Structure prediction request, 530 residues.
Amino acid sequence: MTSHALHHPWWHNGIIYEIYIRSFCDGSGDGIGDLQGIEQRVDYLSDLGIDAVWLTPFYTSPQADFGYDVSDYCNVDPLYGSLPIFDSLVARLHERNIKTIIDFVPNHSSIQHPWFISARSSRSSPHRDWYIWRDPAPDGGPPNNWLSLPGGPAWTFDETTGQYYLHSFLAEQPDLNWRNAELRAQMMNVLCFWLERGVAGFRVDVLDRIFKDPLLRNDPPNPDYRDGQPDFMRLRSVNSSNQPELMDVIADMRTLLASYGDDRVLIGELYQPVDQLVPFYAGPNNGVQIPFNFNLMWQKWYPPAIATLVHDFEHVLPRHAWPNWVLSNHDQSRIVTRFGAAQAKTAMMLLLTLRGTPTLYQGDELGLADVPVEQSKQQDQFARVGEGGRDAYRTPMPWTQARYGGFSELREPWLPLPPDLAHINAQHQSKEPLSMLNLTRGLIALRRAEPALALGAYHCIEANDSLYVYERSDEHKRFRIILNFTDQIIHCAHGSRHGHIVFSTHFVTPRGCAQEMTLAPHEGIIMAVP
Ligand code: NOJ
Prediction:
């Protein structure tokens, strides 16, 4: 163990891998991924070299939002397995030193949760106040102007009791009332239930939405709204989200997690610019350790813009805080589609060499692109209510070239496989030295082997129209990363006569190092320098 490892919790140098359960591997033969399927692929995860998996929701659910509509927080939907299968998976992963982080969905339940069924049965139900109800506006319309994220008003009228209920997402996902002490206690019990089953932490869904303005004031118009942006962005969600009480709940969650061990981690899903992530770090023991930083995803793929973002984040971070970076997830278009296939390797090198915990989304290590899904086969309900569906980013992992891509044995997968299955599959790429998969494995292995790369300081050398050059260093070693963002051969003077190239996205055999360096189009290199 190095001196670094002694001072850093596992998630500082750890790499998190998002598993979108429905699309990872089908172990039960129904065409839908499940926990059994993940267990069959534990070797793959171990070979990849990641430290933790984040499992998207597997709870009992009618699947209106594929598990983000929970009808029992303390059980596994039969579609995805069972509690014993969950326990077995956690144990198998643990044997390989892989931690299990699970999704926690506190903002809303399913409309079919017994709490909501009770709440909507009568105004005097003991669960009525566990959700957010209001009388209609004088004209009979919704109580205020809040918009749901998938599209349309955030309120649905309930005929039986004559009031509207709030739902920040689909009408099938009613928002819970975190100002109700009983609800709050129940949700904390849910965390205990899973911590006792050995989970290493939680990725908390839409963390900044769980408290709303108690007076339910209208959200003001968003002057920065541009045509083409989702409809909900017409308003600034200052009243429908992010209220001060949130920090108390986060602190309670941290205290609870800490009582199970100081290696438990709280990750917040927060779509915020870097400066507004800062409050969520709070203090060393009462904030979110990893407030997901999605800002690279929106960033223009241009070195000066990326370097500015990295600088800004490094600059605003409180002393106790640790950065993190995310390049994609199950809600966003894939890297290859956003930046182009040629950029995927430098993007992966960037993600795995920046300072901060990286989160990888399944399939990005294979260079999987969005897979178009024809309208008649669309699955995501978000497409039904307004915003475009997210199916294209959630298509199944292609494991082999076999029928159903090795994802499923018996049934056609629930979403299509990529058209270029011959190359975009894990088995094929395992054998290709320069494949995206082996590049990712190699970068992860290097990061694990070199504390300077995982934990060392970041220092920008240059960011111009073509190149992004930066260093990662500690008291023992220094690495220079040079990324060519263009489709041109680039000559630069960022080499070093005494350095050596330890990794290239384009060449298996390292070439010599000199002051003058030549980079292939879209090549990224990591160089050890004195
Ligand atoms: C964020 C999740 O990532 C997304 O998939 C889901 O639809 C919403 N939260 C609502 O839970």
